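Bench log. Compound arrived from synthesis this morning; before running ITC I wanted a structural hypothesis for how magnesium ion sits in the protein. Inputs:
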Amino acid sequence: MTSQPPPRQPPPASGEPLDAQPTQEEAGVALGAIVDIDGTLIDTNYQHTVAWGRAFADHGVDVPLWRIHRHNGMGGDQLVAAVAGDDVEEQLGDAIRESESQRYAELIDEVRPLPGARELLTALRSRGCPVVLASSAKPGEAERYLDLLDARQIVDAWTTGGDVDRTKPHPDLIAVAAERLPEVSDFVVIGDTAWDAVAAGRAGFPAIGVLSGGFGASELRDAGCVTVFVDAADLAAHLESALDAARAAPAAVAR
Ligand SMILES: [Mg+2]
């Protein structure tokens, strides 16, 4: 993460607005964007919460839904132990994850893109920011979301929970996403949960938060987000200032 401002540019050519800003590519500062999917681009968090609740109940484990919701953003490899404890993970983890896959499949036809999701991706690209989608979701679910967003031609790459052994809040998924764009050295992570921000910090990148996943602004800031917006549409409308805040953030410290 660099804190240096982009180099000054020559005046715009005749006919261009005087306040025209150079794209990041023109300025020589390519800030890559690593963008979460669930709760950030696609409205899935409450369906996932219900699916996990039903999956735990299928195996006789009673977990209040609010506790599950607080752990949205983790992949299934992390969520079972975090919500229900190590003993449940050890004895029932794989069975509960299998149930959750089935339960979520019952609900997936309900999920829709969040307001401004596709516009955020195109706005990032129009500012010269390469985009990698980084989701803890299972590969088949992520493929479905790409179709819902009609984003295969917009994003540069994507990663899923199938690409790593440990999902968020571990930094593995963020690191793999960054590796997909080896020509880019600085990234910002955009996500809806505290786990996105923690994973970003552990990977050494700043994070921008959105409230569309149900986490509060103070939670997201406490987890390390440098700035927070209502949703993808709000972030797209204020993208330049958001990216400036990310560029100005000190290098994240591993926690
Ligand atoms: Mg998310």
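What the model suggests: Residues 159 and 240 are 25 Å apart (CA to CA). The longest helix spans residues 86-107.
ITC booked for Thursday regardless.
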